[in-house]
Amino acid sequence: MADHKQIVRQWMLLRRLCRSRRGYTVDQLAEQFRVSVKTVRRDLELLRSVGFLLRCRRGAHGKQWWSIEPPPEANLLGFTLDEAIVLYLLRPYLEGLSGSFLGEAAREAFAKIETMLSTDTTANFLPRLSELLLTIPLRRPGKTDWQFMDDLWEALENQQVLLMEYQSLDASRPRRYRVHPYAVVVYHGAWYLVAYSEHHGEKRHFKLDRIHQACCTDEKFQRDPTFDIRRHLADSFGVIQPQGKPQKVVVRFSPRAARYVQETQWHSSQKNRPLEDGSLEVTFRLGETEQLKRWVLGFGQHAQVIHPRKLRQEIQQELEATLRQY
After folding, report:
1. pLDDT digits over 196-236, tens only?
2. The pTM is what?
């Protein structure tokens, strides 16, 4: 997470420089990102070392103004440097076009974009940004989503309290919360904010689609230094927050479903045991089973919960209630 925090700050700094003709002083950047002047200088040096054409000019009263020199290809393509980087990072998502009637045009387009980026940039800076991109699903944002995401990343980066109006799935109207953002995760194409809620007195998961309004305050919070998002979600089958101690869960899949289940590591605790008849017994250790239950039900007659008994009963009741609909 510390490295992610650093690369997010460097990306935001790069965007500021790309969108300002005059540039910024080190003091201005330090104030905007709420970090030390030493940190800003270190970030600028890193950006320069990975191939970005940073320019420093001396202004009035001896102040140094930092800006970024766009490559000549930028004028031809009409992109700012940060826009070109984002498009270049999306290239893996369009690999499915290869071999289609659109494939050649896509390849040529990315080749042009690549001319704006130095070898050092593509080799040393973009891979770190790509790691963040893996956590971000592609969806069509609403008109205000980009501003909200900028505020959210700023709150994550600077450890600032986020004030938001959130309407949970069961609520009839939104409610205002003060939260301390810790991480953003994705599950099945949806964004979730993991944050400490002052109202609940614990870390909660908030689906971003259910946030009506949000703004980043100037108030800082002290982040739990022991927090790790992977450990936090280790006992969950998805993103529902575990409510109890981890327990053993055993599910048996028919021969027809066994190969499909074996092809994927569905959870870090997963252990597969092939049986002689071709079926598969899978064991998990989970602190919540709600999302596992939905997953098992999706296999229909080809999945059977063996343990625990309570989960077997819940699935049986669910199936009986479904049967009554027909």
Report:
1. 999 999 999 999 889 988 888 999 999 888 888 888 888 88
2. 0.58
Decide: 166 and 206 in contact? Cβ < 8 Å.
yes
DSSP 237-271: SSSSPP-S--EEEEEEE-HHHHHHHHTS--STT-E
CATH code linked to domain 145-232: 2.30.30
Which one-letter DSSP state was computed for residue 193? E
| Alpha carbons 222 and 80: distance in angstroms, whole number | 36
Q: Where are the beta strands (DSSP E) in the chain?
A: 54-58, 64-68, 160-166, 175-187, 190-197, 202-207, 211-220, 247-253, 271-274, 280-286, 303-307
pLDDT digits 0-9 by tens, 157-191: 788 999 999 999 889 999 999 999 998 887 776 78
**Cα separations (Å) of 158 from 153, 155, 218, 262, 275?**
8, 5, 10, 42, 52
Higher-pLDDT residue of 32 and 73 is: 32
- CATH architecture of the domain with residue range 2-133: Orthogonal Bundle (1.10)
pLDDT, residue 143, reads: 39
Mean pLDDT over all residues of the chain? 85
Residue 3 reports pLDDT greater than 80? no
DSSP codes joined into one string, 122-142: IIIIHHHHHHHHTT-------
- 316, 283 in Cβ contact below 8 A? no
Tokens at 114, concatenated: 């690549």
DSSP 116: T
Q: Which of 67-71, 77-81, 95-99, 142-146 has the lowest mean pLDDT?
A: 142-146
Spatial distance between the Cα atoms of 128 and 175, rounded to a whole number of angstroms: 36
